[in-house]
């Protein structure tokens, strides 16, 4: 039972980092990234590439965390002159291109068969590392969110043209947010690789993006507590799938698919009835009368 | 001195502006009137950099203003308000005022993490200035309301306040009086007169002739993208061609 708790906390921490990364992009800046799994996969594949080519683990981490933001800048380049709706399509496509490349070019990291990477032997250590990464991203996101930068990112979310007529360069800010949040997601990917000990393309489908989005939208995209709450709820239902299967006597495949169906339903209901999520953005009050 | 020289804009074969030229001196209000679709908003958009231009140039005190790049135009001290006010609706009035200030150290990642004291000081200054701008607009009591919840007239005042935070030398105002109640129009007129006294250049696109005649030093009339008349407000009112194209046939 303790083992299960340690594993669950590790997994929840990793996915919380992904959720905070999406909070910065979508919740604050309004960037609709439907390829959030991409930086995560790049981090994991940096690690897998190093393992497959006999490089040390730190080199793999370095590759993943460096490559992700560069790739991010490349991906959003064609989106710079498009409305934000198109970001969804561009990023969705980019994520799939990366997965299909990994699937079809086995030289990089084993193709369909995947690659084994070093796996943390000590589950407690993995948990501590995951929680440390979570803490760092959380502090970073909180500092940004509560700063003048966070305020300007919210202006971008509301109206890019307004930001531009006020003398800001919207695309520069969007690049900055993308780079920073993709580094976070890549670091989560590196950690995930070492927690599971095995990387293959099937772990990085559009479905994973969808799961992150469910958590973020459910909890409230514009607050850190919101995305954390959403991640806890979604990941707990995810890790408890097999218990539900045992308890109900239904085949676990069916339960897993029902779970995804339930996520879809949750997304629709939240969009319809509580678009701000479970925890809405708090109003920041100022004393206007002070002299 | 704001000098606009031979501005032309076309969408395919439709000419939105036909070599429009004009000048506006510091401490003056230039009215821009004309029927709907005559190119007034396009003209403001070009100067603000929101709209790319086919040909022509804009100079402020002799310096060429980069066209088509709104973020760089703002750095030259040119601010534009929109007919439908552009605001961050899910931020409060106070926050909306604050975002008008420029530059803000706290918007750079490096300063944010390495120079927190600088960021804090600048932020405190911005807050002080935001308070005084709000008082000037008489909007202090709305400071902590969401901008999206304000009435149309208050939103127009707010977007003007946002501009003022950037200390613009040139204000491009697009129909500030449209859909605004008389009390708030009166407040805007007073505000515009103050801004003129401070030596700013104001270009005012407006259909409300009472406001135009009340504050403008000179009026330019546009029709089908071309200047058809220019002069002081009273002369414009007497101009027969203007009456026909814009104010309707005399009874």
From TrEMBL, chain A:
Membrane topology (UniProt): Multi-pass membrane protein
Show the GO MF annotations: branched-chain amino acid transmembrane transporter activity
The UniProt entry, under InterPro entries, shows:
ABC_transp_permease (IPR001851), LivM-like (IPR043428)
- A single cellular component GO annotation: plasma membrane
Membrane-spanning residues? 6-24, 31-52, 58-79, 86-105, 125-144, 176-199, 211-234, 254-273
Question: What keywords are annotated for this sequence in UniProt?
Answer: Cell membrane, Membrane, Transmembrane, Transmembrane helix
Subcellular location(s): the record lists: Cell membrane
Q: Which Pfam families match?
A: BPD_transp_2 (PF02653)
Q: Return the protein name.
A: Branched-chain amino acid ABC transporter permease
> Where does this protein come from, organism-wise?
Acidisoma silvae
From TrEMBL, chain B:
Instruction: Check the record and name the PROSITE patterns matching this protein.
Output: ABC_TRANSPORTER_1, ABC_TRANSPORTER_2
Q: Which domain of life is it from?
A: Bacteria
- Keyword Nucleotidyltransferase tagged: no
Gene Ontology cellular component?
plasma membrane
SMART domains named among the record's database cross-references: AAA
Query: PANTHER family this protein is in?
Result: CONSERVED COMPONENT OF ABC TRANSPORTER FOR NATURAL AMINO ACIDS, CONSERVED COMPONENT OF ABC TRANSPORTER FOR NATURAL AMINO ACIDS-RELATED
The protein, known as:
ABC transporter ATP-binding protein
Q: Which UniProt keywords apply?
A: ATP-binding, Nucleotide-binding, Transport
Q: Which Pfam families match?
A: ABC_tran, BCA_ABC_TP_C
Gene Ontology molecular-function annotations: ATP binding; ATP hydrolysis activity
InterPro entries cross-referenced by the UniProt entry: AAA+_ATPase, ABC_AA/LPS_Transport, ABC_transporter-like_ATP-bd, ABC_transporter-like_CS, BCA_ABC_TP_C, P-loop_NTPase
Q: Where is the ABC transporter domain?
A: 2-249
Q: Where are the transmembrane segments?
A: none
């Amino acid at each position: 039972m303790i083992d299960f708790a340690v594993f669950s906390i590790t997994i929840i921490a990793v996915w919380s980092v992904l959720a905070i990364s999406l909070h910065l992009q979508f919740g604050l800046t309004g960037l609709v990234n439907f390829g959030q799994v991409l930086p995560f996969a790049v981090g994991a594949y940096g690690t897998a590439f190093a393992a497959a080519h006999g490089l040390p683990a730190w080199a793999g981490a370095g590759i993943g965390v460096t490559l992700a933001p560069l790739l991010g800048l490349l991906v959003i380049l064609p989106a710079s002159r498009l409305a934000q709706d198109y970001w969804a399509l561009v990023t969705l496509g980019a994520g799939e291109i990366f997965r299909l490349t990994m699937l079809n070019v086995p030289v990089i990291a084993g193709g369909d068969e995947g690659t084994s990477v070093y796996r943390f032997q000590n589950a407690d250590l993995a948990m501590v590392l995951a929680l440390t990464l979570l803490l760092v991203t959380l502090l970073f996101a909180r500092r940004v969110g509560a700063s003048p930068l966070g305020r300007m990112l919210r202006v971008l979310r509301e109206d890019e043209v307004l930001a531009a007529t006020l003398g800001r360069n919207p695309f520069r800010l969007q690049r900055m947010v993308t780079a920073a949040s993709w580094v976070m997601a890549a670091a989560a990917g590196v950690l995930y690789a070492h927690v599971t000990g095995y990387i293959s393309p099937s772990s990085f489908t559009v479905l994973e993006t969808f799961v992150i989005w469910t958590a973020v939208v459910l909890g409230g995209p514009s607050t850190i507590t919101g995305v954390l709450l959403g991640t806890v709820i979604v990941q707990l239902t995810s890790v408890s799938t097999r218990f539900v299967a045992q308890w109900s006597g239904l085949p676990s495949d069916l339960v897993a698919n029902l779970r995804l169906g339930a996520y879809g339903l949750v997304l629709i209901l939240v969009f319809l009835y509580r678009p701000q999520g479970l925890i809405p953005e708090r109003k920041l009050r100022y004393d206007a009368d002070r002299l | 001195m704001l000098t606009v020289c031979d501005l032309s804009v076309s969408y395919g074969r439709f000419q939105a502006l036909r070599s429009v030229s004009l000048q506006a001196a510091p401490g003056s209000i230039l009215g821009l009137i004309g029927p709907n679709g005559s190119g007034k908003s396009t003209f403001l958009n070009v100067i603000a950099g929101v709209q790319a231009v086919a040909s022509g140039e804009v100079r402020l005190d002799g310096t060429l203003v980069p066209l088509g790049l709104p973020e760089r135009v703002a750095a030259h001290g040119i601010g534009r308000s929109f007919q439908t006010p552009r605001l961050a609706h899910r931020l409060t009035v106070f926050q909306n005022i604050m975002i008008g200030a420029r530059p803000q150290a706290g918007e750079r990642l490096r300063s944010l993490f390495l120079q927190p004291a600088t960021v804090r000081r600048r932020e405190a200054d911005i807050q002080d200035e935001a308070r005084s701008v709000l008082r000037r607009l008489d909007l202090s009591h709305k400071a902590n309301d969401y901008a999206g919840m304000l009435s149309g007239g208050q939103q127009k005042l707010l977007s003007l306040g946002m501009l003022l935070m950037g200390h613009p030398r040139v204000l491009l105002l697009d129909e500030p009086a449209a859909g605004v109640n008389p009390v708030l129009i009166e407040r805007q007129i007073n505000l515009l007169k103050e801004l003129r006294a401070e030596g700013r250049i104001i270009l005012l696109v407006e259909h409300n002739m009472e406001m135009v005649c009340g504050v403008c030093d000179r009026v330019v009339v546009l029709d089908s993208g071309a200047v058809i008349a220019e002069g002081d407000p009273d002369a414009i009112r007497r101009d027969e061609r203007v009456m026909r194209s814009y104010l309707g046939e005399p009874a």
